[in-house]
Design brief:
The protein has about 625 residues and is mainly beta. The protein contains eight helices and 34 strands. It has a 22-stranded antiparallel β-barrel. Strands 2-7-8-5-6 form a five-stranded mixed β-sheet. Helix 1 runs antiparallel to helix 2 and helix 1 (about 5-20) runs antiparallel to helix 3.
Length: about 625
């Protein structure tokens, strides 16, 4: 390739520099100084090769899957649990979901950790809130992704702060040479619930374009008479999402791609009495990502510039002006350089720089800003076709906060046709959030980052079409951040104690196709012991046992599925008080669909068939038996 392409590279960098000038221009420009020569060298080296027919924004995920077990959910899986992301994760993953009533505030727990120990990653970009350090699951769109990947275990070397217990990856891809495709999905369910989703895509050999939108709304006034005549008063919600993605091959081995998501939602908080004070919470989020990718015979590079924004407003009286609110803005530059020094030896360097800004309205936060930089290096060695290793190290530079040196080591060995062994050891972290540092009164500028050392293994057994994976794990978290009352009458966060977590995750898969018959079976069981080392008791809202199962059968145009979820005893207090604990429960769902003329699909679902009474948070039961019908048209 001719080095005249340096001029093209420089123009792109300068365009991003102009964008960065709106934020903290000196910091961003300094970060790009070392990216410019790297970028220029990529254009002048290596043999060209054709780009894959599918472009995936999160280019690290395929490497992660070489060493770790990842549970992948498809759009077809999403349709089974189409109420919200909480329901999908509850019934189709090992994650425990703590939901304050259907559609309300919701948070995850991986392997006995807290909500802010889970990283939500949108197309390779960590999108956890700068204020809370976590993701509110029901304020993250369920629709519009091409796959949702769920990874247990640490991942801070690649995905940054909060990737301690696990990570949830919301991924989009863009396919080439697929022509025009479109689909419409519409569902109506109990409690006046409507879910609608539409998608259009077009691609040829150079251009790929995809746009989608969804709207969900529900009166959500379900009743659970067996639970003290509970009525989900003031529980209505709505959310609207819009996604657009474009990828263009500027050269046979280069693409420029753009992906954006816009989301708007409103949640009314349930009240327990008819004349109680009705409140609500509204949020709007924007995520936009520009990616320039180069692939040659030995080398690949992905340079990303991203902007994410979160806005939220709390209404102390639902029909009055907002009581409080905040806006968070993040400006992100990230470069992922991957090079095969030898056919079996690969080096991967990841650099990242962020400017995080926050501004509150009638809250404890005024105007705050911080810079975050990161440098990570990974080496992968493919000793044989059946044996591979990966070692990584990372240093985060967080303004005014000390952060530890992170590391990771993984190995995968296919010992035989029937047994595979994987091992992993890592150090991960979470740095304090805006609320923990700057909330007034109460913010604590002396907080240290939480850190964890963890080890896990994957024992994978294969017998024909049956695959069993057993994954024991151990994790030790230091400098755990907790909010505690002070002598001054307000609460403040402190580095308080250590948490020790250990357990087992297991998955059993079976897939068989014969003639027009297709049968799938997936079962997962998780044992989670998470101990507060101050009192040697189980952490709150961490069930010891959880199991999920999904059975699918399809014959030609007919499909039926059954799914179940068991959740064991769950303590809601730090002293393991049995009378306040959530009782074990088992929930069973089923659905069926018929496809006509290969384009039209009609579906019917029954959720909670046995009318189980269950809660994931104290005082807020989830719905008993409910129904939905759906229709899908593919063009």
């Amino acid at each position: 390739m001719e080095c005249e392409s340096q001029e093209t590279c420089q123009k792109i960098i300068l365009t991003i520099l102009a964008f960065g000038g709106k934020v903290n221009s000196m910091n961003i420009k300094r970060s790009l100084l070392f990216l410019l020569p790297l970028c220029t060298s990529f254009l002048c080296s290596g043999q060209e090769k054709a780009i894959d027919t599918v472009y995936i924004f999160d280019n690290q995920m395929k490497r992660v899957k070489l060493f770790h077990t990842v549970n992948t959910l498809t759009p077809q899986d999403v349709e089974k649990n189409s109420t919200n992301l909480s329901e999908l994760l509850r019934f189709q993953s090992a994650v425990y979901i703590k939901e304050n009533g259907r559609g309300a505030v919701s948070s995850p727990s991986f392997r006995g950790t807290g909500a802010n120990h889970t990283a939500f990653v949108w197309n390779g970009i960590n999108i956890n809130s700068s204020f809370l350090g976590q993701g509110d699951i029901n304020n993250i769109s369920l629709f519009g992704y091409d796959q949702i990947d769920i990874k247990s275990g640490g991942g801070s070397v690649i995905y940054g702060s909060s990737a301690m217990g696990g990570s949830i990856h919301l991924n989009n891809d863009l396919s080439f040479n697929r022509g025009f495709n479109a689909s419409i999905y519409s569902e109506y369910g109990s409690f006046d619930t409507y879910n609608n989703f539409a998608k259009i895509s077009f691609s040829d050999d150079k251009l790929s374009f995809k746009i989608s939108g969804n709207h969900s709304i529900s009166r959500n006034d379900y009743k659970v008479e067996e639970e003290n005549d509970y009525i989900n008063r003031n529980g209505q919600y709505y959310n609207t999402g819009f996604n657009v993605g474009i990828s263009y091959k500027i050269l046979p081995h280069q693409t420029v791609s753009w992906q954006s998501q816009f989301f708007d939602s409103s949640q009314h908080y349930p009240i327990f009495i008819e004349n109680g004070n009705k409140t609500k919470y509204e949020t709007q989020s924007t995520r936009s990502l520009l990616s320039w990718d180069i692939n040659t015979y030995k080398l690949s590079n992905s340079f990303k510039a991203a902007y994410t924004e979160e806005n939220f407003q709390y209404f102390g009286v639902y029909n009055a002006p907002k009581t409080s609110g905040a806006t968070g803005k993040n400006y992100i530059l990230k470069n992922d350089f991957n090079y095969f020094i030898l056919p079996k030896l690969n080096v991967n360097i990841i650099t990242e720089f962020q400017v995080n800004k926050g501004e509150g309205y009638d809250t404890g936060i005024d105007k705050v800003s911080r810079n975050v930089g990161g440098l990570a290096g990974l080496i992968r060695y493919f000793a044989t076709d059946d044996l591979r290793f990966e070692a990584g190290i990372k240093k985060e530079f967080v303004e005014d906060i000390s952060s530890p040196l992170l590391f990771s080591f993984s190995g995968k060995w296919n010992t035989s046709k029937w047994y595979r062994l994987g091992v992993s050891l890592s150090r991960n972290f979470r740095f304090p959030t805006f609320n923990e540092l700057y909330w007034q009164p109460g913010g604590n500028l002396d907080l240290k980052s939480e850190t964890s050392i963890q080890a896990d293994m994957d024992h994978e057994f294969q017998l024909g079409r049956i695959r069993l994976t057993l994954s024991p794990y151990y994790m030790n978290i230091s400098d755990y951040i907790s909010w505690l009352p002070t002598a001054n009458g307000y609460w403040s966060p402190f580095n308080t104690h250590k948490v020790e977590s250990y357990g087992l995750e297991s998955q059993l898969h079976f897939n068989q196709k014969f003639n027009d018959h297709l049968f799938k079976f997936n079962f997962g069981y998780t044992y989670s012991r998470s101990i507060n080392k101050e009192n040697d008791m189980q952490m709150m809202y961490v069930p010891l046992h959880k199991a999920v199962g999904n059975i699918d059968y399809q014959y030609s145009f007919f499909r039926v599925y059954v799914q179940g979820m068991y959740n064991g005893l769950t303590y809601t207090t730090s002293d393991e008080k049995r009378s306040d604990a959530l009782d074990p429960y088992f929930v069973l769902n089923a659905g069926t669909s018929v496809t006509l003329l290969k384009k039209y699909t009609l579906g019917f679902k029954v959720n909670n068939i046995t009318n189980a009474i269950y809660k994931t948070v104290a005082y807020y039961p989830l719905p008993i038996r409910n129904y939905s019908i759906s229709a899908t048209i593919n063009f």
